[in-house]
Amino acid sequence: MRCLKYSFLSCLIFTAYTIAAPVIADSNLNSSNSWYQQGETWLQKKLINQQASNLDSKSPTAKNVILFVGDGMSITTLTAARIWQGQQQGLLGEEYFLHFEHFPHTALIKTYNTNQQTPDSAGTMSAVMTGVKTRAGLISMGPEQELSDCKGSEQHQQQTLLEWGHHQGFDTGIVTTARLTHATPAASYAHSPDRGWEGDYDRHPNAYWYGCDSIAKQLINTAFPAGLDLALGGGGSKLESYYSDFNQQFPQGQLLTEAKHLQQLEFTSTVNSELGPILGVFSQEHLAFEQDKVSSSKTVNSHGQPSLQQMTKKAIQYFQSREAGYLLVIEGARIDHAHHKGNAARALSETASLANAVKLADDMTADDDTLIIVTADHSHTFTMAGYPKRGNPILGTSKNQKDEVVLANDGLPYTTLGYANGKAHGRQVMKGNTLVDSEAINFQQGVAIPLGFETHGSDDVALHAKGPGGYLFSGLMEQHEIFHTILQALIKDAEKSEQLSAQAL
């Protein structure tokens, strides 16, 4: 063994140069980018550190990856949501855990864009999907691309995780509670110099002149023909003009427009051998907030839309009935939308819904072959402060140990939750001499800085992981490094063995 000639430290240094990077199909699309190269360098250092620490670098290879993205799911959102969900179950709340908070591996993720300290969803999700950190507003394009400029944009396209997966023989799918053409889901399959070019009539004139297709057209006429197997979400207003194209291209495909159509699908290996791709579009715009889908009886879905859990279950059943491994992206999109409205009640409800979907996926899959990742694309200006007593309703006004409403210096009560900026300027907790019900679903928390809507935050977000390769997620990571880590978890056994054998040369 060559390492016997050197000290232990020297051997580790030698190993740094012998562990190979994952081989990516069509890697020329991304690998020349400096951000991509940085991600590869980070991964190699990570692998070496794991070797030096005698951690299980020979962990099983992932057959499947399920990536959950809570859009705007900041760390404060996680804290407040766990308390809220615990209190819904009759607990004090603080001691509760969201399901994925039990996962064995965690990391903090830096979220900035290359041109903005506070990021947007297009740039952040593009980093996760391509391994290349990029500018705000771009959909899976490198940072050299100018926003809204179609000319020459093709040369800046970055291969996405789902595109890579298809070339490697994986089945691929997207589930979202937003429009399927919205920034976060779009970054998994589309390439656009402007996140706003969702539909044909949303594009800048230069998009017509230089031939940039809308995101909707790319989904139907590029992504599905290129191998996308499943897409479930909203966005009929952008997509319905392409329904006929989908039906013509895929006579065996399934175009679904109501929740009952999704529930009626039965998946077996025999059926799926003849089944084409599945496109489910259950709303003209975003899907309704989970709490708004249910009538006062709490039993009837009043919107005819599936829940995130229902879509997650059907997607996994579909992929499990097929022979190939799969890459599935699932977005809880409306956490973000509730935060933008300064509406904490719906934001926490949507976060709990995502956590329930993660539990469902965890229960349906095996730890030895499925890597499950739960993270966020960015944070919000959401805050949790004051000194409320233990178990105080998380959406309520702050009360002290004597169960007395705490007053601020201006003599008014205040809520535990608030926003640094947004629409509801002031605290909005009193109407005349009457205390407003801050636990009501439509209540908007007070803000410090008045704006037309609440903005994103710049702080780190959490990542939770379990399954093959999950151990690689730890410490403080750049957001685009998530992509590289997923690829490492998916390296075939033979390739991994070849890489590890380099130590014995």
Offer a few descriptive terms:
505 residues, alpha/beta, Alkaline Phosphatase, subunit A, 2 domains, 18 helices, 15% strand, globular
Structure description:
By secondary structure, this protein is an alpha/beta fold. The chain has two domains: 351 residues, Alkaline Phosphatase, subunit A (3-Layer(aba) Sandwich), CATH 3.40.720.10; 71 residues, no CATH class. The chain has 18 helices and 17 strands. The strands form four sheets. It has a ten-stranded mixed β-sheet, sandwiched between helices. Strands 10-11-14 form a three-stranded mixed β-sheet. A two-stranded antiparallel ribbon has the order 9-15. A hairpin with a 2-residue loop joins β12 and β13. α2 crosses α17. The radius of gyration is 23 Å and the shape is globular. The N terminus and C terminus are likely disordered.
